[in-house]
């Protein structure tokens, strides 16, 4: 069953994630997710010193599909961004699902988010999101 968690940026947290802070957070990781690697290249090309953090965001974990979705709720609502898990992440989830999700959420805590809503989503709602975010050429 899919799990939706809503995150809110703490009042005392910085609304910006500076590149130095991001690098510091990444030092703890053994490997870089391909999406993070692309983001870092984009930041470097654009010479942007920071990333603006959403005030409110939503994460939906869908372990049956080995992925999760993220989207911004505030300041401006966005569409869902699909994050397919790497093989190592799938192995980590299979070993200890609870720890895997806690580790993912811990990263958002470090960014300054707190969790204020958690609910399970029905399969029908997830199917709609999966259909809207399917990869180009994917048959499912």
H and E order: EEHHEEEEHHEH
| Low-confidence sequence ranges | none
**If you compute it from the alpha carbons, what radius of gyration comes out, rounded to the nearest whole angstrom?**
15 Å
Strand share of the residues? Answer: 25-35%
Summed over residues and divided by their number, the pLDDT gives a mean of 87
Which structural class fits the helix and strand makeup? Answer: alpha+beta
* Form type: globular
Strand order of the largest sheet: 6-5-4-1-7
Count of helices?
5
Largest sheet: 5 strands, antiparallel
- Annotation, overall tally of beta strands: 7
Helix content class: 25-40%
Distance between the termini: 19 Å
Notable characteristics:
two-stranded antiparallel sheet, 30% strand, five-stranded antiparallel beta sheet, alpha+beta, globular, 39% helix
Can you offer a commentary on this structure?
Helix content is 39%, strand content 30%. The strands form two sheets. The protein has a five-stranded antiparallel sheet. A two-stranded antiparallel sheet has the order 2-3. It is built from five helices and seven strands. It is globular and about 40 Å long. A hairpin with a 4-residue loop joins strand 4 and strand 5. Helix 3 packs across helix 4.
Describe the structure concisely.
This protein has 140 residues and is α+β, with helices and mostly antiparallel strands. It has a domain at 2-15 and 53-132. It contains five helices and seven strands.
